Amino acid sequence: xxxxxxxxIYKMSSCAGCQLEFLNLEPVLLDVVGAVxxxxxxxxxxxNAPGPYDIGFVEGAITCGEEIxxxxxxxxxxxxxxxxxxxxxxxxxxxxxxxxxxRVVESRVYQNLEVIESTKAYGIDEYVKVDAYLKGCxxxxxxxxxxxxxxxxxxxxxxxxHSVCVECKLRENVCLFVSQGEPCLGAVTxxxxxxxxxxxxxxxxxxxxxxNDANAESLARSFTEYGLHKSDVIRKFxxxxxxxxxxxxxxxxx
Amino acid sequence: xxxxxSLTIPNPLVLLPKKDLSRLVQHLMQRYTVVGPVAKGGExxxxxxxxxxxxxxxxxxSLLPPKKVLHQPFEVLFSFHQEQxxxxxxxxxxxxxxxxxxxxxxxxxxxxxxxxxxxYPDPYYVNRRQNTLIVAANCTKVGDNCFCQSMGTGPDLQxxxxxxxTDLGSQILVEIGSPAGEDLLQxxxxxxxxxxxxxxxxxxxxxxxxxxKKRLNTSGLKELLEDNFRHPIWDELRQDCLxxxxxxxxxxxxxxxxxxxxxxxxLKSGQRQREWDSCMLLEYAQVAMGHxxxxxxxxxxxQRIYHKLAYxxxxxxxLGCVGCxxxxxxxxxxxxxxxxxxxxGGE
Lengths: 254, 347
Ligand code: SF4
Ligand code: SF4
Ligand code: SF4
Ligand code: SF4
Ligand code: SF4
Known about the structure:
The complex is a heterodimer.
Chain A (H helix, E strand, L loop, with lengths): L5 E6 L5 H8 L1 H10 L1 E5 L11 E7 L2 E3 H13 E7 L1 H5 L11 H8 L8 E5 L9 E3 L6 H13 L10 H7 L5 H5 L35 H10 L4 H9 L6 H8 L2
Parallel strand pairs in A: 1-2, 1-3, 3-5, 5-7
Antiparallel strand pairs in A: 4-6
Helix pairs in contact in A: 9-11, 10-11
Chain B lengths: L12 E5 L3 H11 L1 E8 L2 E6 L25 E8 L3 E4 L7 E6 L1 H15 L5 H8 L1 E6 L10 H4 L11 E5 L3 E6 L2 H6 L6 E2 L3 H14 L11 H7 L5 H8 L5 H4 L7 E7 L5 E8 L20 H20 L9 H5 L6 H8 L3
The complex binds iron/sulfur cluster (5 copies).
């Protein structure tokens, strides 16, 4: 046993892209491992040590009873529980299925429906108390490191609460919305990704969910003025964070 | 500060054939970092150039104002270390020339000089400002969102420059605003301009003056705003505004910033950084224990508009808006400071 904080990483319904970001931390990974003990990390370790843990990162949405149980156990074994990535924060991509009847969705994927017992896709705070949220699809490595440093020091990390537009402007990008009329969600989406998509000529898809004062209804009205069909507006707001009160208002505004 | 002096009239005038412009810039580049408008995806951005051909002096506006080279969007103020204390890293002082700055943006820099240079001098700003010369360019083109004419900040400039250019077609009229500006012309063969060129300049500027589409009535602004603190327009704007912060990010006179300490993973050393902040953002007015004294969007929009048009004046002796129109052009919701004031004024 060391006195380093012990960390566990759990996977629920997800693509594993967020935990992969831990491995992608490569240049700083050794420092991270030096500062914390990655005790339970199935993707990266052959042998995993049992709990309790100081920090647990949960990746993925919760989409079945089995995961609810696993999540509750995780909550019990971790002092601090973190939602890792948009799926765990508010449902993320898996939550696109929530507006289609469960049996219909299941039948699109599985042949034998008898063994399938899926539930609607929720973020983990539907079932347990969550201490911190790291948004993003996938999470931003910089924010991840910032969070770990904050946790080690016992201070709240500096995570951007405002819109992607702020970072987009700080990088002096040409605005895809006002210059090219492309329907960008950046104005209502939480920053922290460095305006990743607009900086590469793609509109923000809202993967980080609503910013702290997101006015999605107003943006939805602009989308229709710019010629977007009602069904496209709905799809946009439900792609990652349709379950959040802010984005659901956007989807319902038109 | 090498803030350009306004010389007693008449300013020395010279003519520069347009084909020699790149020679002038070439000479400047030998001694200075030259930062000017460069095309970027259909817009323009002030950038350090490596070739005079990169300059696009017929630009209308830039994405971010040239303010960005004096008060940078992101900057590291200093490093710190548990044992070594504070480690200052001042930039090497290579002088820079801001080239082709429009009158509105020069006025904005003068406002920043007051905010950052006077009562509580900001060493980072003052340091860069002292190393910066301004080659301004009068506007013979007017953008759809420009209203500097209403604000008394354009389309021509009276002071605040080291050199001032006016495009007269095949020639450029160059007015010298300071000894440092005169020095910039040392290496380039120039002919004194006949006084009649001033008539030609006025003709071009008059053409520009007729092209303004936007205006803002500045008489009695403070009273108008004071009387209309509860006007219904604020609630309409609350419903419209996205609180995205873009309007302040692009404003040449906004000077708000946030300071953040970034620790290294050893948790012993790190850097103190600052970056632009905006009163349009929810967290801006949040204080200890989570209280927020401007949590509603209407309160924040009012802060922006009142700050520009009512609160600057008593502090800096000038309005805080120079009419550059950037906040209008960048707003997804087309929220327009001139429309707001026209509504309040009953127009
Ligand atoms: S491109 Fe998108 S994120 Fe960037 S400023 Fe425009 S609306 Fe905002
Ligand atoms: S720009 Fe938008 S979609 Fe792209 S990574 Fe950032 S939040 Fe996600
Ligand atoms: S740019 Fe427009 S929508 Fe965004 S904060 Fe400013 S006024 Fe509001
Ligand atoms: S308030 Fe708008 S028009 Fe006035 S200086 Fe700022 S960005 Fe330009
Ligand atoms: S308070 Fe707002 S409007 Fe005034 S300078 Fe700061 S960001 Fe700009």
